[in-house]
Amino acid sequence: MSMKILAGGSLGAFGLAILASVLFSTPAHTQEPAKKTADQATTDEGKKIYDKYCAWCHGEKGAGDGPGATYQIPRPRDFTSGAYKFRFTPSGDPPLDEDIFKSVAEGFPGTSMPPWKHALTEKQMWAVVHYIKTFSDAFKDAKPKKIEIAKRISPSKESIEKGAKLYKDLKCWECHGDEGRGDGPSAKDLKDDWGNPIRATDLTQPWTFRGGSSHMDIFRNFTTGLNGTPMPSYADTNSDEDRWHLANYVRSMAPEKDPSAATLISSAPIKGPIPDDPESAAWKTAREGFLPFMPQIVEEPRHFTPMVTAAFVRSLYNDNEIAFLIRWSDPTESKDGAAVDAFAIQFPAREGESGTKPYFLDGDEENPVMLWLWKQGAAGAVELLGKGLKATGPNPKAGTFTKTVASYNKGEYKLLVKYSLKDRPKGTVSFAPGAFIPVALQVWDGGNGEEGPKKGVTTWTWFTLEKPTPVSVYLYTVLAVVGAVVAQGWIVRRVRRS
User: Fold this and answer.
1) Are 270 and 418 in contact (CB under 8 A)?
2) Angstrom distance (rounded) from CA 484 to CA 491
3) Are the C-beta atoms of 180 and 253 separated by less than 8 Å?
4) Average pLDDT of the residues in 204-215
5) Which 3 state secondary structure label does DSSP give 415?
6) Peptide bond between residue 301 and the one before it cis (omega within 30 degrees of 0)
7) Where are the domains of the chain?
8) 3-139 domain in CATH 1.10.760.10?
9) Do the two domains 3-139 and 264-467 of this chain adopt the same fold?
């Protein structure tokens, strides 16, 4: 299973548990010919597989009301309606069999729906497809017609500019926000056709797109709409060219390549003061690491539907202090009430444990952790000592934060934290260049009711302060270049004399 699936903020415990049980307990299958047409035997086989693996979320009768449904956003698909989001059929029409098969095989990143191709044979997945169709009358005598995908328009600068204008004119920003982070004014009130809460997609994170993130996938969604959701079809209101321009613009909001989870976060040495401005050249050139969040579902009270999916981390240090610049998407700025937006950076608490990983959820009594906690509305970051999820409080050996700067703009937080390296208390983790120190992150979205143990967490990864490059390295490089030039000149003179 890829890290992209784990990165989804709404990956529920039931999806994880079911997928784990399948991957580790399902015996290997011999590949049998797939049966794309239904008969009673195939449908009966599909029912057995569905009852074993699918009913937990989708319900015994396919109504999306299984035991795990309550803990998931978005809710599991209600198969009785015949309404499917991701299809190659016109708006309002049932999907092709191939559309359902792809959903079963590939799953949906950022949700509890795993890719069953890792656990079931092609024949078994087709059997499930045929059984699922029996839940709705929409498939009786239906002959869904596949839409035609118009000739692609390349994502040129001109096309992207046209798409940007369409994004504004069609009011896509009302749900998805000006910068595409799902923070539009209508986003918080969105519901599907069954009255369930539904989230506007963060267009800057294509690795969380449910139905694929290619230009063609996005064009298809604009053409077909997403049945059962507020996302309409633009096939009747906008030309093929318009939809391609819009698709090109939406895809341009995100990096071309999906990020991979960092295994090492590094802090670069800098001469002079560390800039307070996140837009400064020093911060722009610092290496950025990507860390995906997962829901805290280990201990009570569990949280199955976190909002924040990932954070991006940079770090710089000098002789006096170390600094972290962290950015993450959050569709709401929550600074009032009991639940406010917050973020924490976690390290081992003790010097001798710089290479040891304590329990990742706030440590324990024997192996505590140091937490740098920032809360929206607070004067600055504070240092806590964690001895367990319910035993975290002020650190009696706290260090000194020299600066905390936080900003929120168009669905994105940027948090800059500076910490003194000069007055570290004895026995605590020292940030020695070249050492490998475990680091983990935690995040709370107050707008999603997250506080205390209800949060998003990362696993441990490694952090290191890069050693400054010795002056001798630069000197040897200069001497080598000069030596090469002198040698070349000497060879040229010898050749001319001869």
Assistant:
1) no
2) 11
3) yes
4) 95
5) strand
6) yes
7) 3-139, 157-252, 264-467, 472-498
8) yes
9) no
Place of tokens 């698909």: 77
DSSP string, 447-498: GGT--TT-SEE---EEEEEPPPPPHHHHHHHHHHHHHHHHHHHHHHHHHHH-
Instruction: Tell me which amino acid residue 468 is.
Output: P
Handedness of CA 475, 477, 483, 486 (dihedral sign): negative
Rounded to two decimals, the pTM is 0.86
Would you give the distance in Å from CA 106 to the centre of its chain? Answer: 17
Angle, CA of 70, 202 and 221, to the nearest 5°: 90
Query: Does residue 438 register a pLDDT over 50?
Result: yes
| Contact yes or no for 464/388 (Cβ under 8 A) | no
SS3 state of residue 353: helix
Q: Could you say which architecture CATH assigns to the domain 264-467?
A: Sandwich (2.60)
pLDDT exceeds cutoff 70 at 229: yes
Residue 3 in contact with residue 260, Cβ under 8 Å? yes
Residue 175: φ, ψ to 5°: -105, -45
- Where residue 446 falls among pLDDT bands split at 50, 70, 90? very high
Peptide bond into 74 cis (omega under 30): yes
The strand pairing partners of 344, in sequence order, are 373, 442
Class of the CATH-defined domain 157-252: mainly alpha
Q: Angle, nearest 10°, between helix axes 240-252 and 157-169?
A: 100
Three-state secondary structure call for residue 116 = helix
Distance between CA atoms of residues 49 and 462, nearest Å: 41
Task: Give phi and psi for 406, each to the nearest 5.
Answer: -125, 140
